[in-house]
């Protein structure tokens, strides 16, 4: 007898950036096709990553699945209408990849009698959205949390949560022979050694902390340069660049702009730094750090939720969030080592991510989650 496949409907507001969209697509493509049937629901067909998702062959639908929360009567009417639309997919589970505290989507799923789960992606909770997060969580069948701090801070006694941190493709990010054109692109001489930071350039990422820490040792380590990889088309990035010029470090701290394939840049680096601040949304489970580890890099990360989970086995490679002196001292020790020593050290990080944060393990955990809540 043929097995009945579980139908999973993924919802996501947009594919404007490849962060959440990439995570969703990797999961949807990775599920066992003999056990699962997947579809995606999105608000619109714009966005840089939408075409990639479309080319995957996974059915993707466009509709407004986020009714406005006020006025109440209109909200309930819209949710009832959305519930009927959800039923047309006949899903066994709806899984939301929306980062916000919206609760109308899960309310519609509840009206339709469809199990609804969401992934908690960041450390947002308090303020004006606190009640919305509580209601979203109350309506959820299960909640996939990405780090242990989320569970302890937001759901200390909940039976709904399942810890599912992000995973990374070990084959896609394994170390390779660097491509010469990348050094040329980054105007970096062949004798220079490279520290890299890959991040969406927004204030919470704390890039200024890395710049300040490196400034204190730049003269002592002229053979080292910092590559900052990420979209630099915003006011925060402009401010960072102005700081670099003011400190006369423009030949040692270099910005790449947005890059679709960060792996090409990781292949050149020896050290990776993620200086996220302990404020705002913080981190969920930062995949950039995992990609660097899979690439065999020695990594340093600030001691904030998400990062401290990933580096729990390497506490000496955590530094105080916002602590430029702490980061400077840790960098200083590592920059004294030769390339062979750093490579050997990086292999420990590579083994760690393979054991605990592989993409296959993330997919396996989601598969178990879906099976545990399906009515089939």
UniProtKB/TrEMBL annotation:
- Glycosyltransferase subfamily 4-like N-terminal domain: residues covered: 19-169
UniProt cross-references to Pfam families, sorted A to Z: Glyco_transf_4, Glycos_transf_1
Q: Which residues form the Glycosyl transferase family domain?
A: 179-347
Sorted alphabetically, the keyword list is: Transferase
Q: Which InterPro entries match?
A: Glyco_trans_1, Glyco_trans_4-like_N
According to the UniProt entry, its GO molecular function terms are: glycosyltransferase activity
Top-level taxon of the source organism: Bacteria
PANTHER family (alphabetical): GLYCOSYLTRANSFERASE
- From the Swiss-Prot or TrEMBL record, give the protein name: Glycosyl transferase group 1
Q: Which organism is it from?
A: Flavobacterium orientale
């Amino acid at each position: 007898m043929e097995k009945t496949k579980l139908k999973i409907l993924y919802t996501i507001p947009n594919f404007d950036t490849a962060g959440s969209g990439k995570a969703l697509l990797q999961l949807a493509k990775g599920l066992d096709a003999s056990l699962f049937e997947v579809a995606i629901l999105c608000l619109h067909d714009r966005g840089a990553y939408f075409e990639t998702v479309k080319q995957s062959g996974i059915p993707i639908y466009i509709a407004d699945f986020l009714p406005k929360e006020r006025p109440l009567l209109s909200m309930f009417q819209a949710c009832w209408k959305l519930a009927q639309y959800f039923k047309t997919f006949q899903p066994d589970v709806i899984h939301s990849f929306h980062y916000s505290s919206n609760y109308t989507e899960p309310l519609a799923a509840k009206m339709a009698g469809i199990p609804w789960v969401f992934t908690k992606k960041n450390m947002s909770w308090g303020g004006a959205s606190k009640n919305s997060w509580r209601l979203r969580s109350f309506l959820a069948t299960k909640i996939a949390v990405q780090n242990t701090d989320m569970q302890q801070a937001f759901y200390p006694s909940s039976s709904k949560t399942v810890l599912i941190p992000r995973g990374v493709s070990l084959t896609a990010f394994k170390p390779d022979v660097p491509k010469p054109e990348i050094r040329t692109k980054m105007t970096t001489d062949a004798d220079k050694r490279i520290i890299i930071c890959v991040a969406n350039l927004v204030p919470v990422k704390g890039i200024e902390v890395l710049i300040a820490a490196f400034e204190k040792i730049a003269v002592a380590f002229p053979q080292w340069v910092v590559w900052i990889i990420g979209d630099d088309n915003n006011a925060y990035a402009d401010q960072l660049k102005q700081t670099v010029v003011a400190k006369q470090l423009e030949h040692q701290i270099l910005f790449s702009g947005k890059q679709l394939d960060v792996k090409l840049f990781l292949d050149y680096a020896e050290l990776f730094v993620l200086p996220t601040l302990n404020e705002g949304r913080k981190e969920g489970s930062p995949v950039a750090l995992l990609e660097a580890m899979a690439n065999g890099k020695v990594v340093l990360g600030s001691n904030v939720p998400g990062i401290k989970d990933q580096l729990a086995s390497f506490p000496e490679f955590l530094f105080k969030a916002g602590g430029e002196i702490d980061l400077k001292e840790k960098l200083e020790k590592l920059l004294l080592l030769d390339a062979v020593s750093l490579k050997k050290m990086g292999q420990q990080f590579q083994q760690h991510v393979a054991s605990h944060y592989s993409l296959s393990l993330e997919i396996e955990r989601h598969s178990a989650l879906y099976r545990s809540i399906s009515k089939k």
